[in-house]
Amino acid sequence: MADRRLAILEDLERTEEEVAAELVEVDELYAACEELRGSALDLVAFLRGLPGERASLEREIEESTQGLEATADAAEQAERELAAAEADSDPERLAAARRFDIRARDALGVAERRARDALSRASELEAAAKAAEERADELASRARELADALSRRSRVAVEVGVRPGPGPAEIAEWGTQVRAALLVARNQVAAERDALVRQANELAANAVGEPVAAMSAASAAELLRRTLERS
Question: What are the boundaries of each domain within the chain?
Fold first, then answer.
């Protein structure tokens, strides 16, 4: 009888190992899904705001260019006035011309920085847009791989194993469905594991003749082996 119980426990031990491995796989799929879904949502938000960002930068570039032209004209005027004042013998005119020249050159420097900054940010935005296109292709490829992996799992709904559309919004929506399906699958696997543990603990308690602390099927089998060795 004891040998029979040990054989059952060893079978439960093997099954528990399989279920534990499946639980790890489901958790890995869930983590992959969440990372993919989060990346897709970030990309959706970026692409949604891209037209507005472009329009805003276009206005800023236009305004900064106009401002630069105006300050450049003022700087040239100040330079001409300073040259004329230096040729004149009026000290007050020279002092005023120098102040005007300093202010004009300072304003020109600010306008030049503003124009450069606007162009630089526009360039960075276009680089980010290009990277977003590449990112979208990468996400679509990863979504196909994940869908193929899900299609081989019997515990998840059939529809989540179907490849989503290539767009980030489609991937994000599909990822939400996958997330829900994997949570259901994980609950099923976890329930099976808990049932195995309860059965193993009941057999162990019956074999040793007293209640035992909650333990895995492997620990229950080891407990029964030690009990058999002592008897």
Answer: 2-230
Q: Which amino acid is it at 109?
A: G
Crossing angle for the helix pair 168-208 and 91-151, to the nearest 10 degrees: 50
Closest residue by Cα to residue 125 from 60, 81, 178: 60
Rounded CA-CA distance 171/26 in Å is 19
Nearest to residue 217, comparing CAs of 1, 26, 19?
Answer: 19
Q: Cβ-count burial of 41 within 10 angstroms (0-12 exposed, 13-18 middle, 19+ buried)?
A: middle
Print pLDDT tens along the chain (231 aa). 456 777 888 888 888 888 989 999 999 999 999 999 999 999 999 999 999 999 999 999 999 999 999 999 999 999 999 999 999 888 999 999 999 999 999 999 999 999 999 999 999 999 999 999 999 999 999 999 999 998 888 878 767 778 899 999 999 999 999 999 999 999 999 999 888 888 888 887 877 776 777 777 777 777 777 776 666
Token representation of residue 201: 């603990």
Residue 209 Ramachandran class (φ > 0 left, ψ -120 to 50 alpha, else beta): left
| Dist CA 227 CA 2 (whole Å) | 10
DSSP code, position 154: T
